[in-house]
Amino acid sequence: MPTSHAAPERPAIGLVLTGGGARAAYQAGVLSGVMDILDPERRPGFRNPFPIISGTSAGAINATALACRAHQPHRAIDRLGALWSGLRSEDVYYADAPRLLRTGLQWLGMLGLGWIAPSLNVYAPHSLLDNSPLADLLARTMNFERLRINLARGHLSAVAVTATAYTTGEHLTFYQAHERIKPWTRSLRRAVACPVGVDHLLASSAIPFVFPARAILVGDATLWCGDGSMRQLAPMSSAIHLGAERIFVVGTNYRDETHPGARELNPSYPNLAQVAGHTLSNIFLDSVSMDMERVERINELLARCPPNGLKSESLRPIRSLMIAPSQSLDDLAMAHLQELPRAARTLFRVLGVSPRQARAGSGALVSYLLFEAGYTQDLIALGRADSMSRAGEVEAFFKEWSE
Predict the structure, then answer these.
(1) Can you tell me the distance from the alpha carbon of 156 to that of 73, in angstroms, rounded to the nearest whole number?
(2) 308 DSSP assignment
(3) How confident is the model at residue 1 (pLDDT cuts 50, 70, 90)?
(4) Angle at 151 between CA 251 and CA 175, to 5 degrees
(5) Which residues on neighbouring strands pair with residue 42, listed in sequence order?
(6) Which of 385, 278, 248, 255 is nearest to 327 (CA)?
(7) Which of 17, 206, 216, 295 could crosslink 55 through cysteines, CB 3.0-4.6 Å?
(8) Cα separations (Å) of 136 from 59, 139, 159, 164, 372?
(9) What whole-number distance in Å separates Cα of residue 243 and Cα of residue 51?
């Protein structure tokens, strides 16, 4: 009687997409390259290689877009690339002169008269920019019913997006899963099981001061939530809690955005663009690198434990691989500054951004808010080139999965 051999169980691979505003277009390029490495012939029955998807800020939008089309992984990546390639700033925030002028006057009025009449503060704008167009774009492009079907049919195991609650100071993970997964709680971190929707994506991508916070109902309490990159001490934890055994990370930060060789001997006082750029870089600084180092140290400790000491589900080795930009995205953004609408370009110039007087850090602010096709297309091309240049590592990482 012939012996039957059960097919080896594929490792659960989690995809972690970090934040970065417009920089997240880079992730579409990386994933395009990965898909071509894994399935160059684009086979019709090719399975989604990322059953667990977790995203933060703009990465949360990418994560959910992929989850909504997990049943068609190649098409999901193609649609994501097409969305970023044709993007304009007006698709994300109002960039016309009347609206920007009105917001500016409101801020000036609050700063000039708010201390005399505190009651006027109720009329203060909630943010520098109004991202209502982004809400409309997400409502048109995200098929949340298809996401539910993909989870039910096993095309996807779980999707998670993160946000930060201004109300309580907690880092929140909103997740939707095929199987019942008990919500977890850690110090200043909490998971909430719920159907992911537009409000969660807007909250996760609400860059502080730039975009307005979003009200999210959690249990019986309403929490005002902002960008998920704030207080994100363990970016990989959501994927691990959701069952990932391997984690593929796509970052948005160049390994060295500090430009130590370009220091001036007698620098002038930093302008608003520099301060804002460094602040955003600090918020979006990929703590995932430190998280990966922490996981490696834990893996080393687990390797020294006897096999029967790893019975707890919370103790298991995690293999990870990260791809991040191979060149400065600040410099790349400055090369496309003129593509911004005139009113937005004027706003950046008032803040201190000028291609003629490029100063360290001023390009960072632009790199997060330049939602223009020329820039995003270059980001996609860079992401694809970076993943293809590491094809051997990608193949090795997915080896057992693809067999």
Answers:
(1) 11
(2) G
(3) very low
(4) 55
(5) none
(6) 255
(7) 17
(8) 18, 5, 22, 22, 18
(9) 10
Task: Supply 311's token pair.
Answer: 């019975």
Burial of 57 per CB tally in 10 Å (0-12, 13-18, 19+): buried
Rounded to the nearest 10°, the torsion over CA 119, 120, 123, 125 is -110
Sequence letter at residue 364: A
Which tokens hold the place of 348? 């950046």
Predicted TM-score (pTM) of the model is: 0.87
- What is the DSSP annotation of 18-76? ---GGGGHHHHHHHHHHHHHH-TT--TTPPPS-SEEEEETHHHHHHHHHHHTTTSHHHH
Q: What is the pLDDT of residues 297-337, one digit of tens each?
A: 777 777 777 766 555 545 677 889 999 999 989 889 999 99
Structure tokens at 46: 């090719």
CB atoms within 10 A of CB 217: 10
Question: Distance between CA 228 and CA 55 in Å, rounded?
Answer: 9
